[in-house]
Amino acid sequence: MVVSRIDELGGAPGGKGPPLQALARRLSIQISAVTHALKPLVRDGVVEIQVDPDDRRTKRAVLTAQGMKQTRQMYELWAGVNTRLDAALGAGAAQELRALSRRVASPEFLAAMSLRKYD
């Protein structure tokens, strides 16, 4: 999930890549969780952490060539999963499931959930 968000936010090789703070906001997690999640990706050569040349206080996540290759493979696998889901549930039910998943993952849903008081 982290890699796909880096890709979404412009983290392709040669690009600036998203600031870690923006990545944390997009994932609805704290910056410390982002840095923890990135450590194995950096170790495995999928992501590089780069200091922003315009603001040295800012760190950015950039996919490596290996990271881009794995991202393409991930999207191909995900397309296959979606094809199987359509076949198993039917196109209409699969579309409803995707819509509900998007709703549950939305910032609005997360905000609504954080406003509720838990007993």
TrEMBL record:
Parts forming coiled coils: none
Gene Ontology MF annotations: DNA-binding transcription factor activity
InterPro entries, alphabetized: HTH_MarR-typ, WH-like_DNA-bd_sf, WH_DNA-bd_sf
Domain HTH marR-type: 1-106
Classification via Pfam families: MarR
Protein name per Swiss-Prot or TrEMBL: MarR family transcriptional regulator
Organism of provenance: Devosia aurantiaca
